[in-house]
Specification:
Layout: H1 8-14, E1 24-26, H2 32-35, H3 38-47, E2 54-58, H4 64-71, E3 81-85, E4 91-94, E5 97-103, E6 111-117, E7 120-124, E8 143-147, H5 155-160, H6 166-176, E9 180-184, H7 194-202
Parallel strand pairs: 1-2, 2-3, 7-8, 8-9
Antiparallel strand pairs: 4-5, 5-6, 6-7
Length: 203
C-alpha cells in the first residue's frame, strides 16, 4: 500500500481486496491526506485478529511510534506494527516486489517510489513540485502515477503548496517515456474539473 488516506481500510474492502493480506505500507510524507487512514487500518486489522507483522516505511519525521502509544494502552495489538525510517536510495523487497525511495520536493521530507515486479515497473510521485532530474527513477515505467493537484493556471496555489499541475504531470510522463499516466490527488480548490485536468495532461 502506498500512502494511507482517510477511510483506506473501507476503501480496500470496497475494492474487493482483503486488507489482512497487506504486508507493507509505504508513506511518502507526513501530511494528513497521506496518513489519516493509518489508525483505522491498524485497528481494523486488529479487529480481524491479524497475527503476522505489518511493516510501515517512511521518512524520519513521521511520528508513528507516538501514534501507536496513543492506541496501545487501551487496544493492545494482536500483531507487531513496525515502523522503519528510510532514506532516499533505500531499496526494500516485499514478496518479490522491489521498492526504491527517491527524494521529492514538497516543503518537508518526502519520497517518491519506484515499484518493480518481474517485467513491470511503476513510479509513484506522492506530492512534489517538478525539479531537475526528478523523473530519473521513472524512466521506462509501464505506469507513472503522478500527482496533479491543480491545473497549470492555478500557479499561485501549486507553488505556495508545493504541488504539480496536470500539464506538468503530462510533461513528466513524456520525459519518462512512461507507457501510461494516472493522474491523482485532485484538490477541491482546483479551478476546473477532473476532465479539464485529463485534457491538460494530454496536450
Amino acid at each position: 500500500l502506498f500512502d494511507c488516506g482517510d477511510r483506506i481500510y473501507h476503501q480496500i474492502r470496497k475494492s474487493g481486496n482483503d486488507p489482512t493480506t497487506l504486508d507493507a505500507v509505504f508513506i511518502t510524507h507526513n501530511h494528513g491526506a497521506h496518513t489519516a487512514g493509518i489508525p483505522s487500518l491498524v485497528m481494523g486489522l486488529n479487529i480481524r485478529k491479524r497475527e503476522r507483522p505489518l511493516n510501515l516505511y517512511g521518512p524520519d519525521n513521521f511520528p508513528l511510534h507516538e501514534l501507536f502509544k496513543l492506541y496501545n494502552p487501551n487496544f493492545p495489538l494482536s500483531y507487531d506494527a513496525n515502523f522503519q525510517k528510510i532514506k532516499a536510495g533505500d531499496v526494500i523487497k516485499v514478496r518479490g516486489i522491489e521498492v526504491k525511495a527517491f527524494p521529492a520536493r514538497h516543503g518537508l521530507p518526502a519520497f517518491m517510489y519506484s515499484i518493480k515486479v518481474p517485467g513491470v515497473k511503476a513510479f509513484y510521485t506522492g506530492d512534489t513540485v517538478p525539479f531537475q532530474g526528478y523523473m530519473e527513477g521513472a524512466q521506462g515505467s509501464d505506469l507513472l502515477i503522478h500527482e496533479s493537484t491543480y491545473l497549470h493556471r492555478d500557479e499561485v496555489l501549486r507553488r505556495d503548496f508545493n504541488h504539480s499541475s496536470a500539464r506538468e504531470a503530462g510533461q513528466a510522463a513524456t520525459a519518462a517515456r512512461a507507457k501510461k499516466l494516472a493522474l491523482v490527488h485532485f484538490s477541491a480548490h482546483m479551478s476546473g474539473s477532473i476532465e479539464d485536468a485529463v485534457e491538460e495532461a494530454s496536450k
